Amino acid sequence: MGLGQTTTGAGKMPRHSFPVHFARYEVLRVYLMMMVLVVLGDMANAQYYSTSTTRACVCDSYDENVDYFPNKVEPSSDEGWSVEYFNSYKKVTDSTGNVTYLYLCGTPEPDVGSDEGAAVISIPVQRVSTSSSTNFAYFELLNQRDNLALYESYFGYVTGGCMIQAFADGLMLDLTNSANAAPVDVRFLSAYDASSEVPVIVAKATSASTPLLGAEWIKFFSLFFNREEAANDIYSRIDARYECSAAEAAAAPETPVLAAFQIDATGSWSTAVDEDCTDLDNSTIVSSYAIREEGTIDYELMIDAGATMAFTLDTLTAANGGNSNNITLGMILEAAADADVILFESTFYSMKSDGCREKVKELFEQTAAGAAGNVYDYGKLISSDGGTSWFEGKSTQPDIALRDLISILYPDLLTDYERVYLRKAMGSDEEDETIASASDCEDVNAPLYSEWRESPCNDDSAEVDIVGVESVSAEDVCEDAPSAAVLGATPAAVLATAVLIIGTAVFGI
């Protein structure tokens, strides 16, 4: 609600703005006084939300002895980030050891002491950017989707329906947009950018050594929005679901053999292949891309799902005379010949031709898993440019990723389960690939947790109620409610303005 009136022409009031005809200035003055009193009354009774989706500032009663962060997070490992709490600020260290001070809006800026050059940021932050679509789900789970202003990459690989909707609506930009200079408070990047004028936070969730450490990055992102209560609740649920599923797989009587690897049928990171991939089996691969190693999220997910790996990079290297640089696809397929299940860690959709797709299927059919139709890929939900939802989800929601893996290794355990990331790619019951679109988003304003499906241990998604993730609550409200015209003004300033208006109206001062 504004205090002023719209003017037109040479500063004249529009006719409709006068509810009565003012024949005399005395009447006008009395009317203005009455209107100001009404405005002040509204301001006194209204509740001003500093934003619709974040914790509020300290309005007018800062006390250095008060702990303004009653809800705190703590990482279970020091491999990625750390935080130290003080009454009104947090000292955060990111993946590179870079230190940032986060102080609650309305409280004094902290003294960085020996951390000279450290960024000092007022929280909750309002507009952020990220260079990794993996981070999207952390914000969505925390109900902070609308704070994502810029994606510092190409949006064509994004699979989240509500993020696609936000991008289509112009609520979020990417680097292909000419208006990519969207102002942000913080940049969450995969590597430090010393030239940046905006504070850079290095966040590398996909580099976590275990799936649950990847999920725990939600606590890190919560620090910037004072969403610790929600982050703790969400993480504890993911952890419980994950451990429950892993225990279920561990109790299974048999341990299936899984061959998991990538194939480059695009010619982008291995020996170049022709248009139809006719000599694909003799092409060499880049081992760090093609084969998952111990200590990575993908590998640990497979082990926790109850798989015995058909091969590792070490066993392939040993079979190749100790050389890991010229391993061919043929060598991988030979090692995978007797595996129960093949997980093709890419998609048939992303291959560059129908000839390549047919060639890969022909090679797979020479294995036991391929002959039985037990071949899966990441194509359940993909972007129009071949990005996979697995890439975005394995770190943020590993409980779902684990469930998907268990369903392909132990199909009898999960007979009615609908996979989220993995697709059956061969056999009579081959599944269709689904292209992500904005139509997948039921409510762009709803937190991602509202989409959680039924999960193990009798935890029904219909009963999910995350604490601390509501849009606004009592602690978000400041008692003094500035109008839009004086947004951010102090109570004293508002009162002075009111006195001036009344004085002008009544006394002509």
Please supply descriptive tags for the structure shown above.
single chain, 509 residues, Rossmann fold, 3 domains, five-stranded parallel sheet, five-stranded mixed sheet, 29% helix, elongated, disordered N terminus, disordered C terminus
Supply the helix-strand structural class. alpha/beta
List segments where confidence is low: pLDDT < 50 over at least 5 consecutive residues. 1-54, 267-271, 472-509
Number of domains: 3
Distance between the termini: 25 Å
Mean pLDDT figure: 78
- What is the CA-atom radius of gyration, in angstroms? 29 Å
Approximate shape = elongated
- The CATH class of the largest domain is Alpha Beta
CATH names the topology of the largest domain as: Rossmann fold
Strands, total number: 18
β-strand percent reads 5-15%
The CATH superfamily name of the largest domain is Nitrogenase molybdenum iron protein domain
The helix tally amounts to 15
CATH architecture of the largest domain: 3-Layer(aba) Sandwich
- Binned, the helix content reads 25-40%
Largest sheet: 5 strands, parallel
> Within the largest sheet, what's the order of strands?
8-7-6-9-10
